[in-house]
Amino acid sequence: MIILSPSLLASDFTNLETEIKKIYNAGCEYIHLDVMDGVFVKNITFGIPVIAAMRKVCGIIFDTHLMIVNPIRYIDEFARSGCDIITFHHEACDDDREIFATIEKIKANNIKCAMAIKPNTAVEKLLPFVHLLDMALIMSVEPGFGGQAFIPDSFEKLKYLKRIKAEKNLMFDIQVDGGVNLKNISEIKEAGANVIVAGTSIFKAENINDAVQKLINL
Domains in the chain and their CATH numbers? Predict the structure, then answer.
């Protein structure tokens, strides 16, 4: 089953409640929340208070993507703010021990755990951890800003994860984030992604309902 997770980064920040309800009413199960700290990536977005406020006005699944250094420090606070899924970056941790500890911390809060890799990180870096993850995220653009073009090398990473899932009989979701549009969505799905992050192609569409249905069904 294909799950669409529109990126709030591309929405109208002056009316977040309305924007979230638009994509929920269009049939989206998830909303992708890009949390950036200005250190791990150059941009700064929003954090725990904004997520907690949004949680009060909508029941959509909060798919929270932490682009922050040393993410383990804030897992409990993000969990309490209402996140349903927390994704952290492999590159944001000092070593494998910290990665395992971060996974354990997320799961201890009874929410889903995901890990992301940047475009220049080898997909094989995920292999020691996939059996513990609910989702693996392939960044198909450089994290930090919306509106970038899809990096073609991402297809091979998605295919690798699809093969690993089959070989090891694992159940984790494969998410892709960056540069998704109507021209490449079919190939992205075929490569193995089943959770699709899209921002500009949804929130900037003339008709959000039509854009959502096309991305899901193509």
Answer: 3-217 (3.20.20.70)
Cβ proximity of 176 and 138 under 8 Å: yes
Task: Report the alpha-carbon distance of residue 128 to residue 95 in Å, rounded.
Answer: 12
pLDDT tens per residue across span 5-54: 999 999 999 999 999 999 999 999 999 999 999 999 999 999 999 999 99
* Contact between residue 206 and residue 167 where contact means Cβ atoms under 8 Å apart: no
Whether the model pTM is above 0.85: yes
> Percent of the chain, pLDDT > 90?
92
Identify the bridge partners of residue 35 per DSSP, sorted by sequence position: 66
- Gap between the Cα atoms of 150 and 209, Å rounded: 23
- Catalytic (active-site) positions: 34, 177
Q: Which amino acid is at 178?
A: G
Strand partners, 137: 116, 175
- Model pLDDT for residues 111-161, shown as the tens digit of each residue: 999 999 999 999 999 999 999 999 999 999 998 776 688 999 999 999 999
Residue 107 one-letter amino acid: K
Geometric angle at alpha carbon 203, from 201 and 208, rounded to 5°: 85
Q: How many angstroms separate the CA atoms of 13 and 41, rounded?
A: 20
